[in-house]
Amino acid sequence: MKQLVLLVCLAVGTSASAQTKGGGISQKMLSEIQKEQQLTPADRAFQNAIAANNIDELTKNHLNAGEIDTHFSIETKKQSITDQKQSGRCWMFSGLNVLRADFNKRTDSLVVDFSQAYLFFWDQLEKANLMLQGVVDTGTKPIDDQRVQFFFHYPIGDGGTFCGVADLADKYGLVPSGVMPETFSSDNTSRARSLISSKLREYGLQLREMVQKGKKPASIEKAKTRMLCQIYHMLQYTIGEPPQKFTYAFKNEKGVTVGEPREYTPLSFYKEVMGGQQLNGTFIMVMNDPRREYFKTYEVEYDRHTYDGHNWKYLNLPMDDIEQLAIATLRAGHKLYSSYDVGKMLDRKRGYADTENFDYGALFGTTFPMAKADRIATFDSGSTHAMTLTAVDLDKKGKATKWKVENSWGATWGQQGCLIMTDRWFREYMFRLVVPNAYVPERLMQAYQTTPIMVMPEDPLFLPDE
């Protein structure tokens, strides 16, 4: 019967006389649609079941619900699982997960947990300045200009990418988690973010007025500085005051203090845990966007965490190349920042992502056939969440069969805080990977260093990881 309904509905949809002259739903069209909704007793049962239950529970593929294979042929050293709580800071958690794992590997025993609250404070202040200065730079454009609306629509937010971790850490350094712990508002960001956004929009209008009245740049800068003083004050109350100096002693994996406590600044601490180098220049970001030409470099204009930092830049690659980069880096013992459309086909109870987890089409008598490129182009899919890639399982031919990531939803979620994903899911819903330069072949590094093609942040693929 459902096939008959579909055929009739298609026929009705192609009937020019059924709709209004402008293309609206006419009474005749509505009558035709409703006439074909004759439900059998079995259809009524389906309707009652769907209305009273979670759709994922009804569509769960029983044949795909067996025991999950948790063995991985290549797996990095396990570390503690973090929890971003009710915040959109996954990009920061994943990035700092990579840094603490690299520190542990480089020192062969020392462990450190970095303060997300510390870096988040500076991220929010820098984003506030980015918004205000963007409003100044576009002050002569009309209020409904696309670029002006970009700044007012998204004055500040939690989300970001690994590029933000690099710019912020290089500029402000890092501190241990115990030196600047989480607060309620760093764990639960929505209310403070909403209030700061309102203040920034108010300030943005004032700055636009100054620009349009021809005020001198020095006067505008003074006004902006005063505005940022207020934003700093709000951040200070909600996230805490960033330390300028602190005393710290490192511990090994057994929790034993190693060496004497030393006094650090955030930048001197960052220099020590990074082995004397900065993050920028040590990695490349690759992405899989089948809409665009592969082996080309792209740069997302206005998408950065600090006004004096770097736009989001990436090399577009096929999934085969991305997988080889990931395998080579994991084989060397390094974790990687990676991001996904994590909500798609995710069995949250088991912490398992697979394209065969659910059969939504069978429930509604239809199909969902869009390819990855079409899903991106129509805003149906895109990167939503960053996680730390930690393991891969290879078959006898060296092909990946499944992957594992450390998530930032707490240690009790999924697979002891981790998510296992099949390779077929990985290829469909994985988008971004940050790879150390040492594991990037020369041909790809040369492609990355070419002049980038500029793209706009409104593109459906460039939502920040949250």
What order do the helices and strands come in, and which of them pair?
Layout: H1 2-13, H2 27-35, H3 41-52, H4 55-59, E1 74-75, H5 90-107, E2 110-111, H6 116-137, H7 146-153, H8 162-172, H9 184-187, H10 190-212, H11 217-238, E3 246-248, E4 251-252, E5 262-264, H12 266-273, E6 283-287, E7 296-300, E8 312-316, H13 319-331, E9 336-340, E10 346-347, E11 352-353, H14 360-364, H15 372-377, E12 385-394, E13 400-406, E14 418-422, H16 423-429, E15 430-436, H17 442-448, E16 453-455
Helix pairs in contact: 6-10, 6-11, 10-11
What gross morphology would you assign? globular
Kindly estimate the percentage of residues that lie in beta strands according to DSSP.
Answer: 5-15%
How many extended strands?
Answer: 16
Rounded to an integer in angstroms, the radius of gyration calculated over CA atoms is 25 Å
Describe this structure as you would to a colleague.
The chain has 466 residues and is of the alpha+beta class. It is built from 17 helices and 16 strands. The strands form three sheets. Strands 1, 6, 7, 8, 9, 10, 11, 12, 13, 14, 15 and 16 form a twelve-stranded mixed beta sheet that branches. The two termini are 43 Å apart.
In short:
This protein has 466 residues and is an alpha+beta fold. It has 17 helices and 16 strands. Strands 1, 6, 7, 8, 9, 10, 11, 12, 13, 14, 15 and 16 form a twelve-stranded mixed sheet that branches.
